[in-house]
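Give me structure tokens for this 292-residue protein.
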Amino acid sequence: MPAVTLIGPGAIGLCVASALMDAGHDVTFVARQPFGTLEITRSDGETRRYPARVADAGHAPKADWVFLCVKTYQVASAAEALKAAVGPETKVAVIQNGVEHLENVAPFIDAAAPVVPVVIDLPASRSGPGRAGFGNPSLAFVEDTEAGRAFRDLFAGTVLDVTATPDLVSRMWRKLCINAPGAVLCLTGKPMGVFHEPGIADIAQAILAECVAVGRAAGAGFDGSVIEDQMAAFMNARPGDGNSMFEDFKAGRPMEWDARNGVIARKGRLYGVPTPVSDFVVPILRAQNSQR
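Here you go.
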């Protein structure tokens, strides 16, 4: 079985690791806080426990696969672990939000290392070192390449359903259509019920429309109802729900504003697509983040 070094055992990383361990793979975690047991509560309510092996960044073992599961703004801080763990034959799976998986990791690994960008749809939460839970769906998407299919095969027979697609770009931008408008929660300091307050849904829809326009310029395909369908999902959400960036906002932690919203403005300039609402929103998110 392939050996995996997983950098970033947050909610997603822990839950992905449990699926790898269910498949019999050898997993080593790279973490600042050691933990001896991985404890995962699954969508059906079952709690599974696994013995966990944890290394610090400087002693991350070389592996067949390195899974980078840190948030986008944490990639530079994972440089030491990447240097230690990535060998000549190592494949690197980058499991992150946003659309810049390759760009984010390129400065920190050998250019010859195969990189597998991963789009994941897995509602997960972390309750402490080594403890997390997840709900449904449990989906991931990779590019239909040799390395992408090898990633998919790691999870054969597990709860994580991995699809190798010829159009990963569209999957990335569709996920961004979910994430980017959610910035209104941080802008207002309120959970999903804020969408029903005057004018807020209009702001979210404008961000979503810019995301779709820039995504199309980047080569992503969308069906004609993507904006209406996504806005309906926002409006029908439970009023007290949030998203991961809002949870970071409430906790005073750094936020992924650049990967979710800054990227729309940046790519818009690259492709010549106007993004006036994102251009207005991004400096506010940057300022909110500056003291964290």
